[in-house]
Amino acid sequence: MADKANSYDSSQIQVLEGLEPVRKRPGMYIGSTGYDGLHHLIKEIADNSIDEAIAGYCTKVEITILKDGGCRVTDNGRGIPVDLHPKTHLSTLETVLTVLHAGGKFGDGGYKVSSGLHGVGSSVVNALSTHMVAEVYRDGKINHIEFDTGKTVKPLEVTGKTDKRGTSITFYPDPTIFKETTTFEYSWVANYARHQAYLTKGILIAVADERSGEKESFYFEGGIKSYVKRLNNGKEVLSDDIFYVEKQIEDSEVEIAVQYNDSYSETMKPFANNVLTPDGGMHVVGFRTALNRTINDYARKNGLLKEKEDNLTGDDIKEGLTAVILVKLPDPQFEGQTKNKLGNPEVRGYVDKVMSEYFGYYLEENPQIAKKIVGKATLAARARKAARAARDNVIRKGAFEGLNLPSKLADCSSRDRSECELFIVEGNSAAGSAKEGRNPKIQAILPLRGKVLNTERARLDKMLANQELVSLIKGLGVGIGEQFNIDGLRYDKIVFMTDADVDGLHIATLLMTFFFRYMPEVIEAGHVYLAKPPLFGLIKGTGSTRKIDYVYDEVALEKKINEKIEERKKAGTKVDENQERFKQAGYTAQQRFKGLGEMDAKQLWETTMDPENRILVQVHIDDAEKADAVFTKLMGDQVDLRKNFIQAGAASVNLDDLDF
After folding, report:
1. Does residue 232 share a domain with residue 210?
2. Which of 94, 135, 368, 393 could bridge 168 with an S-S bond, Cβ 3.0-4.6 Å?
3. What is the number of other CB atoms lying within 10 angstroms of the CB of residue 135?
4. Burial letters for 162-196: b for 16+ Cβ neighbours within 10 Å, e otherwise?
5. Looking at residues 462-486, what average pLDDT do you find?
6. Are residues 36 and 83 in the same domain?
7. Element spanning 298, H or E
8. DSSP H stretches of helix in 527-579
9. pLDDT band (50, 70, 90) for residue 646
10. How sure is the predictor about 14, in pLDDT bands with cuts at 50, 70 and 90?
11. Within this chain, do residues 232 and 334 fall inside the same structural domain, yes or no?
12. CA dihedral for 23, 25, 27, 29, sign (positive or negative)
């Protein structure tokens, strides 16, 4: 034992030099080496250009996905300095691209405000790229340098003259790091550019994809006012006017835009130095405090709240609210590497002060708008009280149903949530087969009778009067509204199992609407799935030799039949071209499943419920804004929006694929 202990010496201590730590542990620097991490590389480079724009030195950024798999980001900022750095004795450009924590974001003279908190972006991208080329245009010269996996392979040199200024960086993700994919997605780049253009007034961000020829430019003179307008697109707003304020306090800036619509949900987008903080933080606390106090004070002062009435709550006031909050500060204290929450305590006071003063002025100067906002919040308060009474009534009734679970739920026996699955099944016939065919230890079945309520235009009190939704809420165990708590979720997987027809898809959409509007956390945590039952059964043999090959769509059916025909031909089997194609493939019959109810318990288990064979589609919210707009368009009460959507998409529908 002593020899082993003594063998632990300096030779066993690994020292990673330069950018080696990044290649050794890339996830520590970019979060992952999958799709998100790959696209984060673009963000790290482009954020530096955005910082130049925030500082007032850049008016245009171009992001181009190259045909050869790389990405180029070019701006017309000051250009990264190329003079000798006093500490590294390298050019400042090479220092920024090869040394961790080197950049203009750590002290005086660089950036007053920056989104790149950790200052490691450019060098990290360099480390994780097979090749990087950087060009700086300043002082009339083109300065050129190249790297492979973070190491300099072509030293800095002047390669020509120019009257341009700015920086251009081209990089190629390393496939040995990004093993899942190195293919950039244009839609991600376009969404990123659009958001940054909204948040940085007056900047033009152009994106292009050399592979497909797609290109777009984003420029919003209105900044976050334009952003609020887009978020409310398709919704009935209480007024076309958007409240907007931009003020500097101390060494920070506060920018807020607010507009109410007639929906029952809130859309809040808080940013700090152009970084989205989805978990909120001190700027959101300051905003909510000021908004609630200002609206209540106005309502009291103008007799819109009676003396005996309680103050409107935050939940009442946020119904229908669309707000974008953007704060810019010199030393943002984000919580965690992912920057999801802003922790600077002074920002709470800054936002509170600006919002209280200027939103107060806005309400006084726009009494008609103020009356509508207070009126909507008052209706929300009444609905909240009605919902509480309805919820209490549901809970009281539930006390007699045994462990508060709905009577029609066929629960599973396991109490280990990580292995439990809830199948929400359309129709009693399919539910009966599912109950018989399931694994009762881990699979629970909740049948639905008909189509559930469309919750896009329904408040909580109306929802709680719907027995199907009440059964679902109680079965899930998470509560609803004020009492929602995802920790109570009883199942790891919640599976919508509906027929593969128009009605089945509609039911799945209604369920999706409910989860998106009232339990988005359940979707975000990855618990919601769509079952994919087969559309066809290819039958071979009869009696005890009967065998069925299941296929899930028309494309798979054609492929399966073609494969079987080719196999038979290669084996020397004569194929009669006059026969139906499934018979040419050696099958005796072809079955088209119109619905889950046509399957017996064994078939339903084998095709749709057996973890070894089934196909489940996990539901993600990749773009919450886009999802919100789609639900508003398809499930809201504005018929013209749906009509236009259908007309726009009709041309792409192949009628031969539809089964009537």
Report:
1. no
2. 135
3. 23
4. beebbbbbbbbbbeebbeeebebebebbbbbbbbb
5. 86
6. yes
7. helix 282-301
8. 554-570
9. low
10. very low
11. yes
12. negative
CB within 8 A of 558, min separation 6: which ones?
A: none
Residues 285 and 332 placed together within one structural domain of the fold: yes
| Lowest mean pLDDT across 229-238, 322-331, 648-657 | 648-657
230, amino acid identity: R
Model pLDDT for residues 370-415, shown as the tens digit of each residue: 999 999 999 989 888 887 777 666 555 543 344 467 888 999 999 9
Phi-psi region of 202 (alpha: psi -120 to 50; beta: other; left: phi over 0): left
> Is residue 316 assigned to a domain?
yes
Residue 563 resides in a domain: no
Contact 446, 471 (CB under 8 A): yes
- Domain end, chosen from 349, 384, 419, is at 384
Pair 133, 235 in one domain: no
Instruction: Give the SS3 label for residue 16.
Output: coil
Q: Which of 213, 199, 264 is nearest to 61 (CA)?
A: 199
Tens digits of per-residue pLDDT, 483-500? 889 999 999 999 999 887
Q: Quick one: pLDDT at residue 638?
A: 64
Domain containing residue 641:
627-660
Q: How many domains does the chain have?
A: 3
Residue 205 included in any domain = yes
Kindly report whether the global pTM for this prediction surpasses the value 0.85: no
What distances in angstroms separate CA 199 from CA 110, 218, 332, 353, one per listed residue? 21, 11, 17, 21
Residues 369, 279 within the same domain: yes
Residue 295 has pLDDT above 60, yes or no: yes
Closest CA to 609 of 476, 431, 427: 431
Q: Any idea which residues carry the catalytic annotation?
A: 426, 499, 501, 503
- 128, 259: one domain: no
Six-digit token string for 373? 């906002």
Assess whether 209 and 295 both reside in one domain: no
Residue 499 lies in a domain: no
Q: Name the pairing type of β-strands 443-448 and 421-426.
A: parallel
Domain finish residue from 167, 195, 218: 218
